[in-house]
Design goal:
The complex is a heterodimer of chains A (417) and B (280). With 417 residues, chain A is of the alpha/beta class. Chain A has 14 helices and 16 strands. In chain A, a hairpin with a 6-residue loop joins β2 and β3. Chain B is 49% helix and 1% strand. The chains are: A alpha/beta (417), B mainly alpha (280). Chains A and B meet through β6, α7 and α8 of A and β1, α8, α12 and α13 of B.
Chain lengths: 417, 280
């Protein structure tokens, strides 16, 4: 039988484990981590980061915008804390895309490529995941909270580069990563399982080899208290948990911080519910907590926490969505899909502070300065992380594909030189 | 499909949409709404023939089956070809616009004709595909195969053992334990799937229920004294094949020593193994 003690003795011989046990980062400073706060559904740019206080009522909507700490940048009055730290962030207000459908828009933003019927492109998290994990690498390189968007997966890359989904709401009192505690029956049958695999011979494909590595990881995560602690928000003080906000986005952002601190390379936080075709003002400002309030609290807490822990140069944070929403309020009081203009907030490692890129017209319909494509943005984030933009990936049948779109150009204004 | 306008697409989609909750309470009167006016969209068929009248729901089915057009047939032929061969002729399978042609238009046309000729008989369509030369070609690359001499076939030599989809995996487990798992499908991400297999307790729970399929095999022991028979039945149940000699040699002592418990553990180990979790 494979006992926990035997397992830990084996694992402790590996060079990376002491770092993990001490909570030290496994990555060098040149290998920055990325947190993507994904506002799933299409976040209204006008009601968040590109307010139009001078526009007609049917454009500016019911929510009032106020000038932030960055001159000329108007944020919703429901984002007061974010408005106060804008001078420490980079804001791109001129993201423009031809993809106004949820799936296609998300694909473009998360992979830097427009969808293709012949190729499934990898997401940014999978691109940043190393090719070789090494047998038994204990923690996943790419984690999605609570789950991964369909286009935030590995695409044509091997399964080893896909996200690990924690599969639950970190704000719930009983939150724990699903199935992370070893079952007695599984421990009893592990030696039989090893025999089954041994008799099956070598893996016949990348996916089978990946499965073997994931089995090692699963065993480690099941049996190691240290690995479980990484995902345990109860290790945080009540004050810290409260500062982030006690609901889904806040606690997910806090978990993301714990994970990057523990060596995870990419964390995707998927915050659903931004597809406001109806009653958008009410949807953004009512509820428990109101959506904008949750966003305001979580993002500013993450910003402060990273700085306090000295992680602000090691972690890059991107807040994005698949597209913006229509400038004009529709008859149901909502805003529909609008890919011609949207806003993306960035801060942290590799990025300059207090920079605003681009500008939309008076109604927020389209960029009038410095239009930026999702491919440019993708390229910029990879640049901030120190990734090789010239790198060529290969599909399973050997087709070479550049990491970034050939026409994409990084936004130099926001990248540290 | 490029011939229709957005308004017509919306009207057709209204047949399939669910009513939405009204923010003010209750459900909304319509299902879909015109973006410009907010008015409810009335369900309507796409105009295949300018003279065709608007039809109620039951006429939709007749319209699909009347053979006067081939969109339904194209969709079915394309989907079944994709399911059986592993690659759709039109990909993405939902995108039948003129701007997304089939990778082999003549083949798709032939399948559509066959489907129409047999009055939409799915069994005959499937038979046509699985008895074709293309379907019989080996997809496994390697030496000693005829693929290298067949330029058309070498492009099929792309077989890759892939993990079962969540739905496939759930049904495969259910077929072994002889009971339904909870509605939620197993996770798709591979690491989460491994944790699910090892620790969710669902597989072991199913194997522990009285009367499950593995217990039925254990009951053979009441009538047949040879554990080899139980092992063979277990492999057939879980992996749809007989055990290899090396497997029989490795696992028979477990069955002889631990009886029904060993059988259950081995069933679990086989289900957690590579072979059960992969499409080969």
């Amino acid at each position: 039988m494979f006992r926990r003690r035997d397992f830990l003795m084996t694992m402790s011989a590996l060079p990376w484990l002491p770092g993990l046990l001490q909570g030290a980062p496994l990555l060098s400073k040149s290998n920055r981590s990325l947190i993507v706060l994904w506002m799933d559904g299409g976040m209204s740019h006008i009601d968040t980061f590109d307010g139009k206080p001078e526009a007609r009522p049917d454009i500016r909507g019911e929510l009032v915008s106020r000038e932030s700490s960055l001159e000329g940048v108007f944020l919703s009055e429901h984002l007061p804390r974010l408005a106060g730290i804008m001078d420490q962030c980079a804001l791109v207000r001129s993201v423009t895309s031809p993809e106004g459908n949820h799936g296609r828009g998300s694909h473009y933003m998360l992979t830097g490529r427009r969808p293709s019927p012949v190729l499934e492109y990898p997401s940014i998290g999978s691109i940043l995941t190393p090719e070789k994990l090494g047998d038994g690498n204990p923690i996943p390189s790419y984690v999605a909270i609570p789950d991964a968007h369909p286009y935030a997966r590995q695409g044509f890359l091997p399964l080893t580069r896909g996200p690990f989904e924690v599969g639950g709401d970190p704000s719930k009192g009983d939150f724990r990563v699903r199935n992370m505690v070893a079952s007695p029956q599984a421990q009893r049958a592990l030696s039989l399982l090893q025999t089954v695999d041994a008799l099956d011979g070598k893996p016949r494909s990348d996916s089978e080899a990946a499965r073997d590595r994931f089995l090692s990881q699963a065993r480690f995560m099941s049996l190691s208290p240290e690995a479980r602690e990484l995902f345990d928000l109860n290790r945080e003080t009540p004050e810290t948990r409260k500062r982030y906000g006690r609901k889904l986005l806040g606690q997910s952002a806090l978990l993301a911080r714990r994970l990057v601190e523990g060596g995870v390379r990419t964390v995707l936080v998927r915050f659903k519910g931004w597809d406001h075709h109806e009653s958008i003002a009410r949807a953004l400002t009512y509820g428990f907590p109101p959506k904008l309030e949750a966003l305001d609290q979580a993002v500013t807490a993450l910003h402060e926490d990273l700085a306090r822990r000295g992680l602000d140069e090691r972690v890059t944070v991107v807040l994005a969505s698949e597209f913006g929403r229509t400038p004009r309020i529709n008859p149901r009081g909502g805003r529909d899909h609008w890919a011609r203009a949207s806003s993306v907030l960035l801060f942290g490692g590799g990025l300059r502070r207090g920079v605003v890129v681009g500008k939309t017209d008076a109604n927020g319909e389209a960029p009038i300065e410095r239009p930026v494509s999702p491919a440019d943005l993708f390229c910029t984030v990879l640049g901030a992380l120190g990734a090789d933009l010239e790198q060529v990936l290969h599909t399973p049948d050997g087709r070479p594909v550049r990491t970034v779109n050939e026409s994409a150009k990084p936004i130099r204004e926001i990248l540290q030189s | 499909m490029d011939r229709w306008q957005q308004r017509e697409h919306l009207a057709f989609s209204a047949y399939f949409a669910d009513a939405r909750p009204n923010p003010e309470g209750g459900m909304m009167a319509g299902k879909l709404f015109l973006p410009g006016t907010g008015k409810a969209v009335q369900p309507a068929l796409l105009q295949l023939n300018p003279a065709a009248p608007l039809a109620p729901d039951d006429e939709l089915a007749w319209s699909i089956l009347d053979g006067g057009h081939d969109q339904f047939g194209r969709n079915v032929a394309n989907r079944f070809f994709g399911i059986l061969v592993g690659k759709h002729l039109v990909d993405a399978p939902d995108d039948h616009r003129l701007s997304n042609p089939a990778i082999h238009g003549a083949l798709l046309d032939a399948l559509v004709r066959e489907f129409g000729r047999t009055d939409g008989d799915l069994r005959k369509l499937i038979r046509t595909i699985v008895t074709s030369r293309v379907y019989a070609l080996a997809s496994q690359p390697g030496e000693g195969r005829a693929l290298a001499t067949d330029p058309a076939a070498r492009y099929l030599a792309r077989r890759e053992a892939r993990p079962l989809t969540p739905t496939q995996f759930k049904r495969a487990v259910e077929s072994v334990v002889g009971d339904e798992l909870p509605h939620e499908p197993p996770p798709e991400s591979p690491l989460a799937r491994q944790l699910y297999v090892l620790n969710s307790g669902l597989i072991q729970g199913g194997l522990a229920k009285p009367g499950n399929s593995v217990a039925a095999i254990a009951a053979i022991g009441d009538f047949v004294s040879e554990p080899a028979d139980q092992l063979r039945e277990l492999f057939r149940l879980v992996l749809s094949r007989d055990p290899r000699p090396s497997e029989a040699e490795a696992f028979l002592p477990t069955l002889q020593k631990q009886g029904a418990t060993g059988l259950g553990d081995l069933a679990f180990a086989l289900m957690a193994g590579r072979e059960f979790g992969s499409l080969r």
